[in-house]
Design a protein that fits this description.
Shape: flat
Strand content: 35-45%
Radius of gyration: 21 Å
Number of strands: 10
Number of domains: 1
Helix content: 10-25%
Largest sheet: 4 strands, antiparallel
Structural class: alpha+beta
Strand order of the largest sheet: 8-7-9-10
Length: 173
């Protein structure tokens, strides 16, 4: 992917395409910086604990293999289903479109559609069943640039031993 930013000049027609190109340039630059200077993994917080049958994740920040910041700004709590004895807790970068506003009509007879004018970065925390072992950790050690792809990052493994859950934190630097 070529790194190209918008060059502004007097009299230039300012378009949504120019704005998108500018945002893409700076987002890619930040993601490259995060990957190659800081590497992937949990930087701070994102602690996972279990109390009774509920898993808790604390606020914190991590960087995924694509260089996205996974920022959780408030604690999160989820119920642990009783059907399995092993689970993984993952964090994943997502974008959510917000703030709907009326869009522009292209013709007089066309109805006005709502368009979202903002995008919110979101750290999606999920609890899922343990899948086949992934060799990702051994292929790309913590703090390395990683694989370059955005994918869920494992924060912890949960295992039911007797009637209690044991928590093994993962991918911490």
């Amino acid at each position: 992917m070529k790194s190209e930013r918008v060059r502004y000049f007097p009299g230039q027609l300012f378009t949504a395409d120019n704005c998108q190109a500018e945002q893409t340039y700076y987002l890619n630059k930040l993601r490259r910086h995060n990957r190659y200077l800081h590497g992937w993994g949990v930087a701070s917080g994102l602690e996972v604990t279990v109390s009774q049958n509920r898993v808790n994740a604390t606020p914190g920040i991590a960087i995924d293999c694509a260089g996205n910041e996974l920022f959780l700004d408030e604690s999160l709590e989820m119920e642990i289903p009783s059907r399995n004895s092993e689970y993984i807790v993952t964090a994943e970068y997502r974008e959510i479109e917000t703030k709907p506003v009326p869009g522009m009509r292209r013709t007089f007879s066309e109805s006005v559609e709502l368009e979202n004018e903002r995008i919110r970065d979101y750290c999606y925390i999920s609890l899922s069943e343990v899948e086949a072992e992934n060799s990702h950790d051994s292929d790309f050690p913590l703090g390395s640039p990683g694989c370059g792809s955005a994918h869920p990052m494992i924060l912890a493994r949960l295992e039911r031993v007797d009637k209690h859950w044991q928590v093994q934190l993962c991918n911490r630097r």
